[in-house]
Amino acid sequence: MTTLSRLAALLGLKGDDTMTAAAEKTFPVTKTDEEWRRILSPEQYQVLRGHGTERPGSCALNYEKRAGTFSCAGCGQELFISGKKFESGTGWPSFDQPVPGSVEETVDRSWGMVRTEVHCANCGGHLGHVFPDGPPPTGLRYCINGVALDFKPA
After folding, report:
1. Are the CB atoms for 118 and 129 separated by under 8 Å?
2. What range defines the domain where residue 148 resides?
3. What is the CATH number of the domain that holds 106?
4. b/e map of 65-99 (b: 16 or more CB within 10 Å)?
5. Comparing C-alpha atoms, which of 100, 94, 115, 46 is closest to residue 74?
6. What are phi and psi of 67, to 5 degrees?
7. Known catalytic residue: 143?
8. Is the peptide bond before 137 cis (omega within 30 degrees of 0)?
9. Number of helices and strands (H, E) in the chain?
10. 79-99: pLDDT as tens digits
11. Between β-strands 78-81 and 115-120, what pairing exists: parallel, antiparallel or unpaired?
12. Could you tell me which of 131, 149, 136 has the C-alpha nearest to residue 80?
């Protein structure tokens, strides 16, 4: 049980569907918990494997403006291109759409609310959430933890 799910249980919150759905699926890239802990920093592990959230404004990738590609810090899969990034004012990197087929979504009922969680389709790593308040043409805002991403300039 993760820290998040323990806290939710203590608070009486139910329905942590995100962690259950991700735990039940087999992804193309799989590793043991020990292997994930070896390759990820503690903060990356907390976000990608523990469904945590970094502090807003704490990641340099929030301010990245160069052309390039944002990839999963866990497995290297390309997730977002810089042309789809926009300034949302939330404190996290935001994109209006991912690279096709690179992310999957699950229902997240943690913390007493219903949200749409976004995870890497290749390794299942938690990336963030998607909200219906983004710019045209998609109207979506993929609010992504910068620590879950690597950036490669074009």
Report:
1. yes
2. 3-153
3. 2.170.150.20
4. eeebbbbbbbbebebbbbebbeebeeebbbbbbbb
5. 46
6. -70, 140
7. yes
8. yes
9. 4, 9
10. 999 999 999 999 999 999 999
11. unpaired
12. 149
Domain count, the chain: 1
Question: What are the tokens at 93?
Answer: 């990197």
Q: pLDDT tens for residues 47-78?
A: 999 999 999 999 999 999 999 999 999 999 99
Note whether 70 and 81 are within 8 A (CB).
yes
| Cα 115 off chain centre by | 13
Map residue 10 onto helix, strand or coil. Answer: helix
Q: CA 149, CA 84: separation in Å to the nearest integer? A: 15
DSSP β-ladder status, 141-144 and 149-153: unpaired
| Cα(85)–Cα(39) distance, integer angstroms | 27
- Secondary structure letter of residue 62 according to DSSP: G
* Angstrom distance (rounded) from CA 54 to CA 92: 9
Q: Which two tokens stand for residue 154?
A: 């074009």
Angle at 74 between CA 104 and CA 79, to 5 degrees: 45
Which amino acid belongs to residue 37?
Answer: R
Query: Which residue among 72, 75, 120, 143 is the active-site one?
Result: 143
